[in-house]
């Protein structure tokens, strides 16, 4: 009827009234049918924003797998209260105001102040829920576990977003292991005698198993060059992290061995070692004449950084010698700058 058309015109403007009595959204539907949806309208329901939560996981749970429970608080729609169409905007979420300026008529569209653009009136409430997070064997730090539709509910017409759990390996893990990919690294001190004659240790694995680890008989532990550093590395095959999705396929475990050298040796011990160990291949033969004529020096311990700092101080203090009027030399003396009067 004319009264209904006028009412729709007052609310939605010219788009709300046409010959077939279509609503304001129908014109867009016809446009999409003709031009193949070129205006980019979504065919499915709108989806709300996702929320993320970082969960710290110890390395043992990445190795063994675990189920963690997490309490979450989120906003949900209170279905005990009725959900009604907004009368102010007739469920459109916007209102159109017609402003006459002389002979011109201008339509101004704005968000409905009553429903805040939702098109419906409803109530929300806070809900506390418990979710179970299944950490599978071999998962890694940074891996994401999504919970579909567990974010806040913002509107009855909007699909709630997802709650995304981001796994993060716990820092300062007390297991003693370091993970790199599917390999595990553990640092162990050994004595020089063990490095030369054989090494045995007991390792408690991440699943509680006790491993007796021995070096091969007659095997001497020597450094392996890795990039710019040299490490004493030995490997226990198949005792690394399980592969995610195929937990029976595991990486390797590497022992980083720190050889603890003795502070000193007695002369008798040195003589015994010389008899047991192979002689040096390029040791020079020092004669009595060399002892008398050559300079003698001893090796000492020094940090290269301290040496560099001391050299820098020498550079700043002056490297040249200044001579006085009588020809005497003053080593390390500073030059005096004279100003003209």
UniProtKB/TrEMBL annotation:
Instruction: Give the organism the record lists.
Output: Oxyrrhis marina (Dinoflagellate)
Which SUPFAM superfamilies does the record cross-reference, listed alphabetically?
DnaJ/Hsp40 cysteine-rich domain (SSF57938), HSP40/DnaJ peptide-binding domain (SSF49493)
Among Pfam families, the record links this protein to: DnaJ_C, DnaJ_CXXCXGXG
- InterPro entries this protein is in? DnaJ_C (IPR002939), DNJA1/2-like (IPR044713), HSP40/DnaJ_pept-bd (IPR008971), HSP_DnaJ_Cys-rich_dom (IPR001305), HSP_DnaJ_Cys-rich_dom_sf (IPR036410)
Protein's recorded name: CR-type domain-containing protein
What keywords does the record list, in alphabetical order?
Answer: Metal-binding, Repeat, Zinc, Zinc-finger
Q: Which domain of life is it from?
A: Eukaryota
Residue limits of the Chaperone DnaJ C-terminal domain? 52-262
Q: Name one GO biological process term.
A: protein folding
Q: Which parts of the sequence are annotated with region: Disordered?
A: 1-28, 300-341
Q: Which GO terms describe its molecular function?
A: Hsp70 protein binding; unfolded protein binding; zinc ion binding
| UniProt domain CR-type: residue ranges | 81-125
Composition bias, kind Basic and acidic residues: at what positions? 1-14
